[in-house]
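Researcher: We're reviewing a set of sequences before deciding which ones to prioritize for further study. For each one, I'd like a predicted 3D structure that I can look through quickly. This is SNG2 protein. If possible, include the structure in token form so it fits the rest of the review sheet.
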Amino acid sequence: SGGAYGADKAGGAFDLVRFVQQPQVVARIVSAVFALIVFACLVGDGYMSRPEDPQLFCIFNHNEDACRYGIGIGVLAFLACIFFFMVDVYFPQISNTTDRKYLVLADLGFSGLWTFLWFIGFCFLTNQWSWTQAEDVYIGADSARAAITFSFFSIFSW
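Model: Here's the predicted structure for SNG2 protein, in token form for your review sheet.
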């Protein structure tokens, strides 16, 4: 049935199985999981302290900006995935083709921007990890590597 901007005509019944099988919904779920992994790894194990100094520092070469950047884009990407997921749910109910067009363009623009930001994040975290001293990381190395890895995967999922 011919619809506008990739959806059926407004007013049809919601089919959960058909909805979940759509490629953009699958990509959005995967992107949300990757973002959750990145910011959870950085919040959980991205900061540590030395036994003699209780001051917390970022395990990425003591660069607080690296941890903040990873957490920031991870949280915002996760929230954006939830927002665009809800847009995907209500998209078939939107009858105005102009509104549909703007939503599709916003999704496309945001996805392009976030692909770029994930690429910057991957490069930044990888660079800072390469300069990190091994004696500065007691625990959290696996979480740091996971944040880098899923930042890389997020480039392609967005």
